[in-house]
Amino acid sequence: MDNALVLIIEDESEIAEILETYFVREGFRTIMAGDGTIGLAHHHRLKPDLIILDVKLPGQDGYEVLAAVRRRGDTPVIMVTALAEDLDKLQALRIGADDYVVKPFNPLEVVARARAVLRRTMGRSSRQLIRIGPLTVDPDAYVASVDQPGGRSILELTRTEFRLLAYMAVSANRVFERSELVDACLPEGEALERTVDSHVSNLRRKLAAAGADGLLSGVRGVGYRLADRDG
Hints:
Shape: elongated
Distance between the termini: 38 Å
Largest sheet: 5 strands, parallel
Oligomer: single chain
């Protein structure tokens, strides 16, 4: 995490400079962009470790920039915006934001959230595929698939669904409490235990549709387990 490069895409220069000052003070490198087009060019050329992204930008707005970043890969993104409505937060998280901070904010909080996101995303050190029955999880490529008689079915998962799947796959057969899954896999702005149930429900549905029904199961009063049904 030391010396990580943070791309700040923010059109209000005063806010951008405040964020830059606090990130540099905490040991980060920074690059700034005043609009989405320049921000995407910096992202493509410099490969930052984290993006701080405003929603209301000239030209391409933050949601469009976020979608473009997600098409390219899994660079962590924290949205920073004056929009405080739940629908705005949900849209950002649905597209693939790792966290969401509402203006006015404490710059130290933004840095703290950045560290938390980087710990979560840079901490993925496994270079091996994880296999549980017909399921294969590639943590580095962010790909999960299910073996079928006619070939492989790639699972279309959200970032949070993939985090949950990969986290449980590392310790297959173990029962995970909801609180542990919240701390390990959910963005800070989404950290409610009942939210885990919604994500897991969607994940179970997608596994079942791909032919892996029964791999992910609930344990009443505790949480969830990912295990080979035939193992």
